[in-house]
Amino acid sequence: LSFLFRKTAVLPMTYPKLVKLLDPIFSDEATNQRQREERTYRLFLNYLKEVSAGRRVDGNISLHSILKFVTGCENEPVLGFQMKPTICFDTNMPSCLPMGNTCISRLTLPKGENVSMTKEEVFSFFDYAFANDYFGRL
Q1: How far from the centroid of its chain's Cα atoms is residue 114's Cα?
Q2: pTM, whole model, 2 decimals?
């Protein structure tokens, strides 16, 4: 069990690892809701690619900071999370700011009319949320 307490047991967060870790919860297929959710999810995946390449806010946002926003932990525990981190989508969010619920490891992303902005505008909202150590509603 000593390997659990070694610093080397923590591996760096990568784009594929974070995408696999965050499980999206979509509406039923072939619905308008599902199409909006998939559009928002694709935007979020593009944002994660930008972050992993160090192209957001002068490289000050990392995949670790996004994981911390969702779960409260910067690194995945060696034995994994007790509750699988999820991504859900909400049409009633007042803005494009994502919302983190660390108690249940959930990231809530806006969908619908709030996401009708340009890609860069949505990314700036993501930057604002993930660059701050604030959880919940801003």
Answers
A1: 17
A2: 0.87
